[in-house]
User: Fold this.
Amino acid sequence: MKIVVVGATSAIAEQCCRLWVAEGPTELVLIARDMAKAEKIAADLRVRGAGATVAVVKGEFLDPAAISAQVADAAATGPIDMALIAQGWLADQAACQDDLAMLREALEINALSAALFAEAFAQHFARQGRGTLGIIGSVAGDRGRKANYAYGAAKGFLARFAEGMDHRFAGTDVRIVLIKPGPTDSPMTAEIKAGGRRVAATDDVARTIVVGMARGRPVIYAPPIWRVIMLIVRHLPRFVFNRLSI
Amino acid sequence: MRPVASWGRLSAPPHDVVELGDRDRVAAQIAGRGPGIAQGMGRSYGDACLNPNGLLWRTTGLDRLIAFDAATGRLTCEAGVVLRDLQRLMLPRGWGLAVVPGTQLVTVGGAIANDVHGKNHHVLGTFGDHVRRLRLVRTDGETIECGLDLQPDWFAATIGGLGLTGLIVEAELQLQPVAGPWLEAQTLPYRGLAEFFRLSDDSEAGWHHTVSWIDCTAMDGRGGDLRGLFMRARPSATPGRPWRERRRRMPFTPPLSLVNRLSLRPFNAAYYALNRGRADTRIVHAEPFLYPLDSLLEWNRMYGPRGFYQYQSVVPREAGLDATREMLQAIAASGEGSFLAVLKTFGNRLPPGLMSFPAPGVTLALDFRNTPRAVALFERLDAIVLAAGGRLYPAKDARMPRAMFEATYPNLVRFTRFRDPGMSSGLSRRLTGR
Assistant:
């Protein structure tokens, strides 16, 4: 099994990788910006998955030519079975409202970069006629909220993007899997935790993702209870929703 | 600030929690920031892992493995790795941790800082006996590498050092070759302390794991004699029935302790009656045998909203029989106690750390729901332990008097020289003043 992970230093991606190397012989390509951290993760995965091959690639996340090249390089050593696009940045909403440069950065990393990678992998999967592409969206993308719409809108964009790709590849052996985690225990959610809110365990979320990707399910909520919660949140009438501070 | 409780749930004081996640950034994250204390899984019962109204450095994000040599069994990992994850990863490859305490849900750093022991103490000593090297980051930004042959004084101070010599960031462990997860186990009912000591002595040579459950209500001073179940096990090459983990969780905290004067006697009597007929040899999986409580998550809620204490003492062998009898009589007379009462002999060996708890002799561990009666009982037990030349286990402690700590840990003054001035816990302030 050959798996390429973009944004491999994300807590969720790292836990997914641990599960993959535990399953059996795995060839992993980790694409990351923070090389020092990625190397530590790679060393860990090599110990965990005796016999796992783990390569680390310095990622360039916004340059279309570089993204094409990174995916082509990863594919050059053999067909890719799965790809997971996991980069994300929970930008501070208030800061994004005050600072357009920050807003732009949040949209670029959460939406633009992920879409470019998704398309690059889609080209590869279309050529080889199979493959599973996992894209990490968020429950925040299901309905715009004042608390995080800069982040949420970018993740909502990914939902539409994945939906379109799923339509495009219907009837083929290419699977597009949109993953919507709820708040998960990671450095990204430090402020949520400081506020006393519960977050899901990263390894539980990762298990849901790994199982869902193996089955090729189009939309995964992790933990699954968020499917119900967001169904309700999406259907709240505006006059009710706008009175809530959620 | 958010409330953080330790395993005993006696209080949940506010803490400024900082998560550590990258071993190369720890120095930058803690330098000049103290006083604080490291916390892993928060399994110590009292205040060793708390720093009320102060900084708490959570180490569970430091959970990466660094290197493993399959020829020698040496594993280097970050300090936040949980023992259960390590065991489940390494056992299928024929290697395992030499020493694991009664729960696997503790971190490597916590196991070193409390120099934990297990049911095989008489064979393999404490966790610290199998640490080859460790890396400590101090709050002045300095990094100290130490091991048996590298700054051994720092090494001895840090093993069992309660996290007060600096923050343990990584460690190199010597794993043991393990044939498989199966144990050949026996449960022997017995009566009387003399019988307990006889069984312990008889089992030391041939049995890897020994421990005894005791009925803490039986020795009431009105002629009632101690009754207990002596459990011993050794590695088995024959596989037993497949074991599948069932993860259950104590779903809520009951308004009153489920362990109380009404439930204690009937439960203990039933437990004894159910197990006394099982003297035959069984093949069991190591996990349910060695860590029976790990399958019930958050079992500590059972003691209700006021939480509970654990009292764990060790007394030297010569005084052991009389002191243990006195303690058990005092406990039975108080009517307090719990289902979780454990008696075990430690092996005749010196621990690796300056402040390590284990010593040659016999250790008694009991949980007590938090009541004024229990707190009064502890003073009585303290007197017995002190008179017998014993001491208490800081990892379990939330209340021992400072004078008792000073009197029973003779290396305390030497240890103080190695303390990091930026490291302070509820326990260190209570027992050392800072």
Notes: Residues 190 and 398 of chain B are 32 Å apart (CA to CA). The two ends of chain B are 21 Å apart (CA to CA).
